[in-house]
Amino acid sequence: MLQDFTDVQLINPTCDLHSEFIDLVAEYQKTGEYRLFDQNFLTLIQENFAAYIQYLEDNSKGIDLKPGFVPATTFWLVMQSKVILGESRLRHWLVPTLEHRGGHIGYMIRPLQKGKGYGTKILSMTLEKARNMGLSRVLLTCNQDNLASARVIQKNQGKLTSEGLLENSDKIISRYWIDL
Description:
Elements (H helix, E strand, L loop, with lengths): L7 E4 L6 H14 L7 H9 L1 H13 L10 E8 L3 E9 L4 H5 L4 E5 L8 H16 L3 E7 L3 H9 L3 E7 L6 E8 L1
Antiparallel strand pairs: 1-2, 2-3, 3-4, 5-7, 6-7
Helix pairs in contact: 2-3
C-alpha cells in the first residue's frame, strides 16, 4: 500500500510542538535509542524548550558553534501540522570529520513511525532544502549494517562511493553522494 503524504510537511522547529517533541523523546527513551539526544539537550528540552528552539535557530545561523562544528539547519517532518514524525539536520558545508562520518544530512524517524516510508520522504524533502540552499551535491553516511538507511539513501539517488572503518571501532561506514 502506498503511503499518502499529502498531510506531511517539513517545518522549522517551533515551541508550538513542545509536548509533541517531549513525546518523541520519550518514545526514543522507551526503545533505548535515547543516545540520539545529548544529556545536556535532554535537560534543556525538558526545562527550557524555548531556549532549545533558540539554540537550533542559532545553530542554523552559525552562532556560538563549538570548534569543528558547522552551521546546520534542523527540520521536523510533521503530519497534520501536529504530529512530529521525524527530524533532519542539513549541514551547510563539510569539514574533514563530516566527510568521514556524518555528511551533509542526518535524519531520524521516530520509532513507532519507522517502516512507513517517512525516512525516504524526509530525506527527499531535505534534499530539496539543500538544493534551495545552493548545494549541488550532498554526502550522506550510514553504518554499513544499517540496511534501512542505505535503502532510504539509494531511493533518493544516493550512489555508494566509499566505505571505511570508523575510528576506534569495528564499524564500517558507507558514504553516498547525491547529485542535486
